[in-house]
Structures
1.
Amino acid sequence: MNVTQRQIIQRGLTNCCPNCGGKTLFRDDKRFELNRECRRCGLKLEREEGFFLGAMALNYGVTCFLFLLPTVLLWYNGVLGDTAAIVIALAGAALVPMLLYRSSRSWQLMLYYFFLPQHLPANRRALAAGEDENT
């Protein structure tokens, strides 16, 4: 069955495998460890070294834009005092990336397969089946 770009987005936003939709991206016993492959369909999740640098950039961008920028704006407008702004910013800079760790990894896979859906095994099988019918 062909996996659509809409399904890839839905699966990426819910931390599911982009190929089969299983909740198998992360190890159950370790919060911060990605499985090497999907336990349900066998999709290789651990790609080449450096693949998940994009996830780190996504995590950083979301943390800055949705958390640190509002804190700075509240401080600048006098809503927060100096000490409160520093404490909130430091706490957020440490905690928000940890809370978004799993999501940012899933988002990286989602973006990769959104732009290259033909790299999913489910889509390759669909393409191969379509080629057989046309010959």
2.
Amino acid sequence: MNKAFQGINRIKNVIFMGTPDFAIPILASLVPVLVITQPDKKRGRGQKLKFSPVKQYCLSHNLPVFQPQNINSEEAIKKIESYHPDLIIAAAYGKIVSQKILDIPRFGCINLHPSLLPKYRGPSPINWALFNGEKETGNTIFFMTKKMDAGDIIYQSKMKIMPEDNYGSLLKKLSEQGANDVLKVLFLIDRGIANPMPQDESSATFSKFINRDIRRIRWTKSAEDIANLIRGLSPYPGAFTYFQNKELKIIKAKPFININGKPGLVLKIVKNQGILVGTGCGAILVETVKPEGKKEMSAYAFSLGKPDISKEGQRFNDGE
């Protein structure tokens, strides 16, 4: 048994539900009798089946994995029941489960959500915290209910968002912290001293799914808003713009509120640093880019391959 589980007496059979990289540190801290993840999906140009990160982890660690097409089907429910779980732990599984499943474990179902609920319920809390320039975030573990991310809160941990943080770095920090958070909650539930508190519905906010339209840079927005959008989508899926009719992802940028220029206009090439671009209020220094069909590179290197980029009137645009 995992050393972290020493002292856990009543919770023996744990089922874990998760799909992306975020779930891996939490899964690695547990000893699940079953892992449930989403079905393999076709991806890329060749449309080859690709395993989820959680499935890849299970295969390399000899953990039993279950991938139902419909988690709420009678077949899936019977499978879960057959393991007689004491507790189901979810972290970014990606599907809503039915009341029938919630009623199976004797200690209930808990979920780890990377925000300070009731703020940023929904599928993209880390991205939206960065988009909105938040200075603090954290993890919330709560008892699952039929309503998404609305159950009673068992435990929260807080974390400062550093100026250099982006989506990738913050996701990593929160997932690693989440592993410790889950173990703390296991002890609370096992000892019968968890004291769940209802969420304040009047304070609830929601994070929308990240679609292509959200990722599009609107240069009429302020430098700070644009920089926050870029960091909230870096390193993937990436905020994008267009230059000379080709899509260009911007991976890293720095806002300058005391420099002004027309939105999207290339103001200056800063040697060894990047491309200074005007916005609706201020300017941003584009530092790292990913051109269409190419690898990530410094914006300055990109500018050297575009000798006309310094000509008067050259612009980045949103393609609309």
